[in-house]
What does this fold into?
Amino acid sequence: MKNINKIYIPLLLGIACALGVLLGAKLDFTTSDGLFSGNPRKQKLSRLIDYIDYEYVDDVNTDSIVDITVNKILENLDPHSVYIPRKEYDHVSESMKGDFVGIGVSFHTVKDTIVVIQPLEGGPSEKTGIKGGDRILYADGTRLFGKNISTDSIINRLKGEEGSRVNLKVLRKGEEDLLTFNINRGKVPLKSVDAAYMLTDKLGYIKINRFSETTYEEFDNALETLQKQGAKEIALDLRNNPGGYLSEAINIADEFLEDDKLILFTKNKSGAIEETYAHREGDFENGKVYVLINEGSASASEVVAGALQDNDIGTIVGRRSYGKGLVQREMELGDGSAVRLTIARYYTPTGRSIQKPYGDDNESYYNDYLRRYRNGELQSVDSIHVDDSLRYETPGGKVVYGGGGIIPDVFVPKDMEAEKEQYMLLLNGGFMSRFIFDLMEKDRDYYNALSEEQFNKQEIIDDEVINEFIQYGRNQNPGINIQVKEYKPLLKQYLRAVMAQQLFGTNAFERIKNEDDRIIDKVILLSKEKT
It folds into this structure.
């Protein structure tokens, strides 16, 4: 046995050494061959990253190099094929899911302390009794206030597994001792339907901010509620809706279309066509629908508008939509990141491609709004340039055009007054929200005790509040010069809308913000003319 070992052990060692030399040669970064050299193109990036890992003179975060490289690859494809890094993936996915697991509050950080703006409707905090203005100081004994506490660490403390319990210690104005709340974390809705209310005795209004996993269900519930209130017509507001899940848009379009009506078709790289038809009895097939769009309405929003317009259903009101007719599919990359790759183009029932032109310059593509602004398209329908070769006709004889976005049946110009634009920036940027929050903190008990009915009857935003807001702007940012002039009523309206949102939710916000809205006013006028 010993003699056998003397013979085989040196032999095995020799074979191992030979394999090591061979393997080492194959891993030599200076050669053109790889360990898996069947497809050199696919191995080029991998070989480069390995080479940097092993040989570069300094330590390098090769993960960041990969992120940059993948982004550069996708930038050379089209404007909508995108890379989602691992650190952003959960947030992006959550926003499209329609809910998340947590305690359900929106909050500001004030002087290093979490202060609740409002408990989210339908969430655990609302059910437990958390109120706007409450300061959450501890979660399960862990301090949540102080300069070194990051927002991410706060969120991680408040989120958790569904059904898990968190013990909160809360400071509430007027209470001497800290309040204790034991909250079972649960699903918190991330609503995509911002508002549903009646504009007139027969015209209902539904605002959709994106197409998430729950959008059709939310829309269906809103539609049912409005029908019970007497809605025979619906204004479907898709302005500034960037899109989302195509399936949700298809389901909503199906509510207005008879069976076997074409909703859209897609065409992939090989030319294969996939058609999608209305297939069930919709709740509003016999009702009148107005679809509100503008330059911010994209993708799934354009699917709905295009499907109804090409089937001669309803009226499209507003301005030309964004022009995104590319379909993406998501592929996870195995490390928590993902790619959304364009895999097809979609077309409206008449055969229109809604995708606006794009080339190698993505910057000019995304600056298309500036081009529209300069050429006068936002002010006059006559400034919209159409290509006669992209002319189509609906079954009812209506002429429509492809080549970039949905052109509305009824055009409404954009309000371009500088003061109104400034107010919108302050509204959308959260500046007004912070001011209103600070204002209500001065008398939180009073504001929290208001019912929506009481709120609507009061002049809650008076001239004194306007003066405070102007001074607040100067104190927060000397560069902000808030002009009032003849637009004081509009400023009061927006501040009132923000206060309503913090007290009563997005439905109250949209109802007030939409007062004297040009496109909504036009829809109401069209509805009355059809009576």
Residues 417 and 487 are 10 Å apart (CA to CA). The chain has 19 helices and 21 strands.
